[in-house]
C-alpha cells in the first residue's frame, strides 16, 4: 500500500540521513580540528640495522576527537583529501614535526632526522618547496634533519615537474624517501630518474617473512635488491619478529622500523627513549 511504501521510503531516507549527518558532522569536526588543536603527532624510531641505534623517526598524525577518542589516520586522511583539508592538515604536520625536532635538539637530545608523510595532492597543488622553506625558516630546523616520504603514485603525475620539485627539495638538503615501495604503480625507468635517497619496503612484503618458507621471501628479496642496485638506502617497515629482523640483516637492509623495536610513541615517551640513549 501507499502508506507502507512511504513508510519504507522514510525509513530508508532516515537511515541515509543518519549516515550522511554522521559523515557531515565528522567532516565539520575535521575542518576545525587543526584550529582547535586536536591533531597530535606520534613518533616511531627508525633503527640502523648494523648498529641497533636510533637514526631517525617518522612523524605520524593522530586526531584526538573531542567525543570519539583517538581517530587513526587511515580513517581521517582519506576524508581530509576528499574535503580539501589535506593542505592545511599537511602543513600543520610539517611545521609541528619541524618545531618538535628543533625543540628536542635545543634541549640537547641527540639530533635525528624527522620524516614527514606527504600526500600526493599536497605535492600537486600546494607550493611544497615554499611551504618547506617557510617551515624550516620559522622553526629554525636545519634542512638536513628533515625527510619527506612520498608514495609511488607521485610518479603518475607530470614527471618533469615532479623531478624538478624533488630536485629543488634535495638541493635544499632535504632527504626524499619513496614510501610503501612495491605496492603502487611504478615504472622502473621513472624510478631511476627520480632524485630520491631511500626506498621504504612496504610492510606487506615484510609481513610475508615468517622464516619458514623461502618462497615467501622472494618478493622482499627482489624489492630489496632492486633498491640496492639503484644505489638507494633501503628501509623495511612493519618489522615485528625476530625472523624478519634476521632475514633483513642477511639482505643488508639499511634501516628498519616496526613494533619489534617500538610502536609510534607520544611526544613525552619518545623524548624519554631518545634521552635514554639505549639501543633498540
Ligand atoms: P605509513 O606512512 O606507511 O606509516 C606506517 C604505518 O604502519 C603507521 O600506521 C604505523 O603506526 C604502522 N606500523 C609501524 N610499524 C608497524 C608494525 O610493526 N606493524 C604494524 N602492523 N604496523 C606498523 P598509522 O600511524 O596508522 O598510519 C597509517 C598511514 O596513514 C601511514 O602509513 C600514512 O600513509 C598515513 N599517515 C600518517 N600520518 C600522516 C601524515 O601526517 N600525513 C599524511 N599525508 N599521511 C599520514
Ligand atoms: Ca610513511
Ligand atoms: Ca609506509
Ligand atoms: Ca603503508
TrEMBL record:
Transmembrane segments: none annotated. Residues 23-278 form the EAL domain. This is EAL domain-containing protein. It comes from Tumebacillus lacus. The lineage of its organism: Bacteria, Bacillati, Bacillota, Bacilli, Bacillales. The chain holds residues 361 to 640 of 648 of the full protein.
Amino acid at each position: 500500500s501507499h502508506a507502507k511504501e512511504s513508510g519504507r521510503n522514510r525509513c530508508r531516507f532516515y537511515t541515509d540521513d543518519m549516515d550522511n549527518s554522521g559523515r557531515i558532522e565528522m567532516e565539520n569536526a575535521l575542518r576545525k580540528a587543526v584550529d582547535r588543536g586536536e591533531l597530535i603527532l606520534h613518533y616511531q624510531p627508525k633503527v640502523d640495522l648494523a648498529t641497533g641505534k636510533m637514526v631517525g623517526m617518522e612523524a605520524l598524525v593522530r586526531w584526538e576527537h573531542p567525543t570519539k577518542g583517538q581517530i587513526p589516520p587511515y580513517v581521517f586522511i582519506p576524508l581530509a583529501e576528499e574535503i580539501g583539508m589535506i593542505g592545511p592538515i599537511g602543513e600543520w604536520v610539517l611545521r609541528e614535526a619541524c618545531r618538535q625536532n628543533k625543540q628536542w635538539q635545543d634541549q640537547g637530545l641527540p639530533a635525528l632526522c624527522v620524516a614527514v608523510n606527504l600526500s600526493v595532492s599536497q605535492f600537486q597543488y600546494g607550493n611544497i618547496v615554499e611551504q618547506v622553506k617557510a617551515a624550516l625558516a620559522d622553526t629554525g630546523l636545519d634542512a638536513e634533519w628533515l625527510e619527506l616520504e612520498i608514495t609511488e603514485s607521485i610518479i603518475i603525475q607530470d614527471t618533469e615537474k615532479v623531478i624538478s620539485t624533488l630536485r629543488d627539495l634535495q638541493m635544499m638538503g632535504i632527504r626524499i624517501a619513496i614510501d610503501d615501495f612495491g605496492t603502487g604503480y611504478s615504472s622502473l625507468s621513472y624510478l631511476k630518474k627520480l632524485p630520491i635517497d631511500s626506498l621504504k619496503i612496504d610492510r606487506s612484503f615484510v609481513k610475508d617473512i615468517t622464516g619458514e618458507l623461502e618462497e615467501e621471501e622472494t618478493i622482499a628479496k627482489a624489492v630489496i635488491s632492486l633498491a640496492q642496485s639503484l644505489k638507494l638506502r633501503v628501509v623495511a617497515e612493519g618489522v615485528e619478529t625476530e625472523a624478519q629482523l634476521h632475514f633483513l640483516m642477511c639482505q643488508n637492509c639499511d634501516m628498519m622500523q616496526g613494533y619489534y623495536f617500538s610502536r609510534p610513541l607520544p611526544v613525552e615517551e619518545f623524548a624519554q627513549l631518545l634521552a635514554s640513549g639505549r639501543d633498540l
